[in-house]
Every structure is written in C-alpha cells, then in structure tokens.
Specification:
The chain has an eight-stranded antiparallel β-barrel with strand order 1-2-3-4-5-6-7-8. The chain contains two helices and eight strands. A hairpin with a 3-residue loop joins β2 and β3 (66-73). The chain has 142 residues and is of the alpha+beta class. It has helices spanning 2-18, 26-31, and strands spanning 35-45, 53-62, 66-73, 76-89, 92-97, 105-111, 117-123, 134-139. 16% of the residues lie in helices and 49% in strands.
Length: 142
C-alpha cells in the first residue's frame, strides 16, 4: 500500500511538471498580454464600506514586472506592490519577488484535466532543517 501511495505521489508530481506548458515563456504565463490574477485563496470581502475581509490571497502579475499581492490580514485587505523577475538556474525556473524573504520560488505551471491553468510556488529552503512549502494558485479566468 505504501508503495502504491508513493508511486501515486511521484506520478502526480511528475504530472505537475510535465503538464506544464513547457514551450511558453514563464513571464508570459505569469502575466499574459497585460496581467493575470492568480488565486491562492479567494478573497472574501465583508459587507459594508471599507477594506474588511474574512480571508483570501491573490497575486496579480503585470507585463511591466509589477505584482500586486492582495492578502486579508487581521480582517483587512492589504495590497503590496513589488517587482518580480524570472530566471533559470540548474534547469529550474525561479521567480524572484523583491522584498519577499521566501523568494526565489521554484515556479511550475500545469493545466488540469478541466483545462484550468495552475501555478505552484515552491520555497527553496537554505538548509534541510526548514520545510519546503508549496503554494498552489489557480488562474482567475472569470
């Protein structure tokens, strides 16, 4: 049973990479022709005026290499603007977000069975004592 589970996980991880749109430029996949919003967790705004929210986090990557990171923090929606860049090192595609202590991220794309485009940002810890953290996003195609 453990071997079947291990084989499934390896297969799934392989699909995440091989399901990627390998021929496309990672910068274009992130931002599209002008901008793309990637949803980690859908933002839930509270009724009424103001920036009150119940949860959520999105990244909007623009063609001009700006990213707007919107997060619901302590019940308020906060937007942070940062610069981003993509590079390749040892065959990996890396996303650098200026001012983000967790970056560079290993950047991966895939399209699922329903045709939805997905993105994974994986931390690359500086040592083996820190865990790898994956954040999986769905392209907002609304």
């Amino acid at each position: 049973m453990e071997q079947m589970l291990r084989a499934f996980v390896i297969c799934w991880l392989g699909l995440f990479v091989t399901g990627a749109i390998a021929d496309d430029d990672p910068s274009s996949l992130l931002s599209g022709s002008s901008s793309h919003e990637w949803i980690f967790q859908r933002i839930v705004l509270s009724m009424g005026a103001g920036d009150e929210c119940a949860g959520g986090e999105t990244y909007t990557f623009s063609k001009n290499h700006q990213v707007a990171i919107r997060r619901c923090t302590k019940g308020h929606l906060l937007t942070t603007q940062r610069k981003w860049s993509v590079s390749t090192k040892d065959g990996d595609t890396l996303l650098q977000i200026d001012g983000d202590g967790a970056s560079p991220y290993l950047l991966q794309f895939k399209t699922d069975a329903q045709g939805r485009r997905l993105m994974r940002l994986r931390t690359k810890p500086p040592d083996q004592n820190r865990p790898v953290v994956d954040k999986e996003f769905k392209l907002n195609e609304d």
